[in-house]
Amino acid sequence: MDTFNTPLPQETVGNYIKRLRLELKMSQNQLADAADIHLHSLGKIERGITTRLSHKTRRGLARALSIPSEYLEAICNGSEIPQPFNSIKFCPKCWTPGTPTEPIWNDVRSLYCFICGHELISHCVKCGKSVRTFQHSYCPYCGFYYKNTITEIDSKKTPYKKNF
Ligand SMILES: [Zn+2]
Ligand SMILES: [Zn+2]
Hints:
Helices cover about 35% and strands about 0% of the residues. The chain is mostly helical. About 25% of the residues are buried.
């Protein structure tokens, strides 16, 4: 998985957005359009004149740049970037929610469980929100009990359940 879209340490929100825009080979015009913000607002953000982004701007930019809006929020607030954001993975068969997991599941290269071969999951199967910590047994967003993940997947009969 590409990690270019994670903010670098010390990177300002303007530099971050500009860097991603250039990586995606977008002009300021295209990005402003895609994010549904004014070209000159974007210019001010990239030049570092605007450092606090409104909710709407954050959402628009996040969508246009395919990044979690939490990243922009974290940079603007000067808080810690949610590191494990895109890398928390678990095997729905082998993991007991609320207990530590096998570190290898979380390896970016791991796609399947090394114990049972089931596809690894990184989000709540009910509401689709990323799983950010292994300390929880229930999804903080919708109350789904993670232990029921496998049952939920089976009930939806997703095509990748072919391993057995
Ligand atoms: Zn497993
Ligand atoms: Zn949920």
